[in-house]
Amino acid sequence: MKKKIINMTLDGKRLEAEEGTTILHAAREYGVHIPTICYLESLSPYGACRICVVEIGRGNGNTSLDTSCTREVQEGMEVQTQSSRVVRARKMIAELQVASAPNVKVAQDIAARVGLMKVRFPMDDNRCILCGLCIRMCYEQMDGKALGFAGRGTGRWVTMPFQERPETCRLCRGCDYVCPGTIIPCQGVKEPGELCGRCRPVEEYRCCPNSTFGCFCEKNPL
Ligand code: SF4
Ligand code: SF4
Ligand code: FES
């Protein structure tokens, strides 16, 4: 069945989008960039990082902020992707993210992209940014059902059931592949002709703080 066409505006320009489309998807269809962290096209949207925030109006002067990866388009919607309110919100989200996980490349990248110059909060050294990509990858693409969140608030973490690798985990490394937190920053070589070798022993690294992906570490090397 043909889907209904929604008329809306994005940054003041009129556009048409199919009913059921998210704002993020509609924006991408028209070449408008909205930053994302916890979104991957092939996985269901989760709305965890909130960096994809946009300002939404309904034509009555009132506006609200919402995540563009989870919010569907609606008739008459007026979306701003770069308003001063959006820029402020994104900077705050990026600042909290980079303070929590300064060694995670995606956190640094987003901070740079939103123009963050200074972090006012105490720095932590988390590797997991709680994006949930590994869990969705495992459930939705790999049929592993081997990962989930445990704990609450700042004590939230990703783990396997009872911290044991279940039989349903086939060591496919799908979780590892999508995780922005386990990437070991490339230092490059120091001398011409030198081989740094950092990539080779990757399984020797404890790639996540809680050994979530312990199945790839020294416990159960591939
Ligand atoms: S390696 Fe195991 S935990 Fe990771 S995605 Fe594959 S099945 Fe899931
Ligand atoms: S372990 Fe990696 S993919 Fe999973 S929630 Fe943390 S940062 Fe995201
Ligand atoms: S990309 Fe939308 S909430 Fe993370």
Q: What are its keywords?
A:
single chain; 222 residues; alpha+beta; Ubiquitin-like (UB roll); Alpha-Beta Plaits; 7 strands; globular; binds iron/sulfur cluster; binds FE2/S2 (inorganic) cluster
Which strands sit side by side, in order, in the main sheet? 2-1-5-3-4
What is the approximate shape? globular
By CATH, the architecture of the largest domain is named 2-Layer Sandwich
Our estimate of the beta-strand percent is 5-15%
Helix amount: 10-25%
Name the quaternary structure: single chain
Classified by CATH, the class of the largest domain is Alpha Beta
Q: What is the number of helices?
A: 5
Main beta-sheet annotation: 5 strands, mixed
Order of helices and strands: EEHEEEHHHEEH
Count the domains. 2
- Kindly provide the radius of gyration, computed on alpha-carbon positions and rounded to a whole number of angstroms: 20 Å
Low-confidence stretches: 201-207, 214-222
Q: Which ligands appear in the coordinates?
A: iron/sulfur cluster, FE2/S2 (inorganic) cluster
Helix and strand content put the structural class at alpha+beta
Total beta-strand segments: 7
Average pLDDT, to the nearest integer? 85
Termini separation: 47 Å
CATH level 3 topology of the largest domain: Alpha-Beta Plaits
